[in-house]
Amino acid sequence: MASQEGLAPGDNTEERMANLKAYGFEGVEVGGRGMLEDRSKISEIKRASERAGIPISSICSGFRGCLLDSDPSEREVAMEDIKDLLY
Length: 87
Description:
- This protein is α/β, with parallel strands linked by helices.
- The protein has helices spanning 13-22, 39-52, 72-86, and strands at 2-4, 27-31, 56-60.
- Strands 1-2-3 form a three-stranded parallel β-sheet, with helices on one face.
- Strand 1, helix 1 (13-22) and strand 2 (27-31) form a beta-alpha-beta unit.
- The model has no long low-confidence stretch (mean pLDDT 91).
């Protein structure tokens, strides 16, 4: 069972993830908006996930393009951004 990070109580990412783990969640969905522009957010989220012992199970949006677009270039942009967010 997973939850969105933003729904958990806490003053920061680390507190929210620790609370989700304490409540019995097995994964967390993080918001991806702004991650590609601010790489420090990625490091903060990874660190909080590791400290709390709860894996990131999904990333909610935050990418350009559209995976379902009829234009192959729009699909490619979306796939590249998603790859960047996942790694």
